[in-house]
Amino acid sequence: MTISQVYEQYDMIGLAGLVADGETTPGELLDAALARVEALNPKLNAVTMLREDVARRSVADGLPDGPFRGVPFLLKDLGAEAVDFPSNNGSRLFADTVYGKDSAIFERLRKTGLVTFGRTTSPEGGVGPVTEAAVYGGPTRNPWNLDRTPGGSSGGAGAAVAAGIVPGAHGSDGGGSVRIPASSCGLFGFKATRARLPDGPYAGEGWAGMAIDGFLTRSVRDTAALLDATQGPDLGAPYVAPALDASFANALERNPQGLRVALLTTSLTGQPIHGECVAAAENAARLLERMGHHVEPARPDADTRGMMAAWTRIVACGSALSVRSALAKRGLSLADAPIETIARSAVAYAETVSGADYLEAINMVHAYGRELAAFFEDYDILLTATLAEPPAVIGRFNHAAGDYVDYRMGPGRVFDYSPYTAAFNASGQPAASLPLHWTADGLPVGVHLAAAYGRDEMLMGLCARIEEAAPWFDRRPPLRYAAPR
Known about the structure:
The chain has 485 residues and is of the alpha/beta class. The protein contains 17 helices and 11 strands. Strands 4-6-5-10-11-9-7-8 form an 8-stranded mixed sheet, sandwiched between helices. The chain has a 3-stranded mixed sheet with strand order 1-3-2. Helix 3 (26-44) runs antiparallel to helix 4 and helix 13 (355-375) packs across helix 16 (421-427).
């Protein structure tokens, strides 16, 4: 078997096993990843800030003997601060930002033996369900259909993993930013319970506790191992997640029985969704019934639109803080800021939000979490599609023009397109997107499962059983690497 075939046929844990057995080397795997970047990235625009020299040096210096020793890896170009990996944070204003200290999550990832060699694209400030930032010179495209978005804000990670550039990649999720690309790219994406992963030392929390790091992978076990390697509070964390019973790896062996599953085939506010998304949820419901679970229609009685309005205020204030901090460091005025229209509008909107308004928004988010918690007293799982539509056409949600509030809340805009995922950032509950459906023209449509606060292990175990019942690993997009003859 050639190194190209090996790279295609194994997940992260599988590749690390081959390295451990001496059947391949970290250098050979890095060569394979870089060859794919060269061949595929001109079409995808998913990988940025390449640091081949850093990766080669890490291999030459000797990699830690961790669960992913020798496996190529990419960080999202937002967060995951690392001394050796400058970032743009999706924005010309933040282009080539350097760091004096590694983030806690990167320190933990490095100890696993991963060979990090660059970053993946994200939208400006991590805002939005697509990845089309001006700093990268054009949109990031979906390997399933280059006219469609791979999602956002971890869209570059989704595109890179789906196309086979890397077997897994870092992402983050403040309103669905891991699960939306997972759905759009035919991958597995898991958002853990609030504070399960570290935010320090550069932040105490993201977006009032709604944001968390995560990963895009092709197998459930890879995500489980990545979460085990990175979970737990860092020094000085303001709060922590409930302790796991054992580990995510142990959760893979679980077989939850007789779960109470609520099926929802409208949005959380009762609005209709695309027929393919309805079919995805209904097919998954039938699968869960065959697996012995109890499924019935139900919708949470919660003020989801009010929560999204509060979410919109909180994120605008977060955007304004980061923009104004960067401007102060660079000695620039807001008028001269090299930012896109949606970011500029978000800053302007934030100026209308008082301190009392901001605290009221946080209270609304917390109240919403209590409303969802009450729903999960009666159900173990809420089953929906991940998005209300298949992956959007490039350009529909770019940041080049428009009003920030309308971008988020207007008819046919972000909230209508992604009506589910942010709910569980607000509540802090674990949720996952699984690649269980494809449209007739070959576009992935994810299925979304959410569980009660702290029940990460039950949800991970259920995802593992679904993967066994309806495997997806060998389903690959038409844009793939062709090894030179």
